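User: Run a structure prediction on this.
Assistant: Running it now.
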Amino acid sequence: MAVNDGVRQGGRSVRAANRRAEIIQAALEIISERGYRGTSIAAVAERAGLTQQGLLHHFPGKEALMVAVLEARDQWDMASAATKGDPWPLETLAQLVEYNATRSGVVQTFTVLAGDSVTEGHPAREFFENRYEHVRTALADSLRKEYGDHLAHGLTPERAAPLLVAAMDGLQLQWLISPDIVDMPAAFRDFLALLAPQKDDDGRQPGEGSGLSDE
């Protein structure tokens, strides 16, 4: 009996996980079509073949569903980068910004929720706190892998990482408002170039040795 109960519970868990994935996919489709404000629980439920009450059994509200969409987006992005736990190359980050320029609905959802999450008790607050902490660490690792411990103007990777996050999110906001004026991928590559350490006339970064022995 205990074994059968475990099998039934496992089957329910798999079905629930599959249903959540279907709901997230439906939400992503509607976000892509209508943007954040045009996405409603009713529309997502209809697309997923559920009643609103059935959807709310899996996600207690729109904010919780949107956070799940963003979490899924991050997982998909990590899988597509295929870095196997290594720091992302900066070129991969630049390509991700280019990809984001093709999915304005998801970028809009991220931007709206990020702004709203600054209020205490917002459902997305914990997600963004954890995400920004992780992203700052990951970007510092990426900058160190690319440039070493010393970037332009004496910045360390840890000091530059929050600036890189700010550039990415700030460019997204400007691009959403003025997509015909702000070239988000190009501007991001320009910012990366500003962080790159300057080389001397011999092509070495400041602080690099000549490789010659002092003897």
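Confidence is low (pLDDT under 50) at residues 209-215.
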